[in-house]
Amino acid sequence: MMSERFEFPDLDNLSAVDPAGCEYSSKLVEVEGVVSQSSQSGWPGSEGYSVHLFSLAAWLVVGEPLRRNTLLLLRPVPVEADYFGDFAAGTLHRFEVVLSVDQTRAVVSKLTKRDIVNRELATVAKELEQPVVVKTERFGDLTLNRSIGWFEGLADWNGIEVELSIETDESLDIASQLETAETLFRDATQWQKKIDAFAVAEKLELANDWQEVGNEMDAEEFLDRMVLESISIGPDGEFEFWHDDGDIFYGHSIQISGSLSEGLTDSDIPG
């Protein structure tokens, strides 16, 4: 919990807490909101404080109507603070903040009141506890993972069960993404041939650089060790295929990405 004695930075410097460079109001306001289930994060600040990043799933400026859009909060805290447990998902609080001009972001000046009573926000909190499921014919039930804002499920890709993740936004509309997924899975055999060829062309030489002398692989062994685990679908025809590397890159994933319009465009070994 943030100490009541923590007063840095002052109003003139609050907007500098946000590295995005967006325009902020010059006055403080009080907002009430329900903490979203999105993942929280943080980083060391540049002026002797850390920044706690979390969001409100619904909120209001005190005295004004409820807003259902997400408000991203940036909260300066002491460097040594253990802040991730301060505001659990679904809890209701009041903060003094400076709002961005577009009112999508806010920098917290202080916590005004913890665990407030607000009937509208409490209703939203109850809604957030309910699962959101999209039923599909090919992919079965896709369930919203609120912590990351993606729908998730399982799907059959050329006889292999893989995780399917579909990016969404506050509207939760995934019609376009499902069309992309349908196109990929309908032509899974051909796409797999393209992915195999692309992976070999992009990563086989690097893979052999990672092996001990005398243990170099040919394309067949490389592809045997590269096992598809999940497929991610973006909103504009983009997709990513994530593979277990079979210890080729010492535990790094093998990621092949592209789009329906441009085909396969990139490969990486994140992790």
Question: Would you mind describing this structure in some detail?
Answer:
This is DUF2262 domain-containing protein. InterPro entries: DUF2262 (IPR019260), UCP033642 (IPR024198). Pfam families: DUF2262 (PF10020). With 271 residues, the chain is an alpha+beta fold. The protein has two domains: 115 residues, OB fold (Dihydrolipoamide Acetyltransferase, E2P), CATH 2.40.50; 136 residues, no CATH class. The chain is 20% helix and 38% strand. It has five helices and 14 strands. The protein has an eight-stranded mixed β-sheet with strand order 7-8-9-10-11-12-13-14. The protein has a five-stranded mixed beta barrel with strand order 1-3-4-6-5. The radius of gyration is 23 Å and the shape is globular. 25% of the residues are buried.
Q: What is the tally of beta strands?
A: 14
Rg, nearest Å: 23 Å
The description of the largest β-sheet is: 8 strands, mixed
Total number of helices: 5
Proportion of residues in β-strands: 35-45%
Summarize this entry quickly.
By secondary structure, the chain is of the alpha+beta class. It has five helices and 14 strands. The radius of gyration is 23 Å and the shape is globular.
Question: Helices, strands, pairings?
Answer:
Elements: H1 11-14, E1 29-35, E2 41-44, E3 49-61, E4 71-78, E5 92-99, E6 105-114, H2 119-128, E7 133-136, E8 140-145, E9 150-157, E10 160-167, H3 175-186, H4 188-209, H5 219-225, E11 227-233, E12 238-244, E13 254-259, E14 263-268
Parallel strand pairs: 4-6, 10-11
Antiparallel strand pairs: 1-3, 1-5, 2-3, 3-4, 5-6, 7-8, 8-9, 9-10, 11-12, 12-13, 13-14
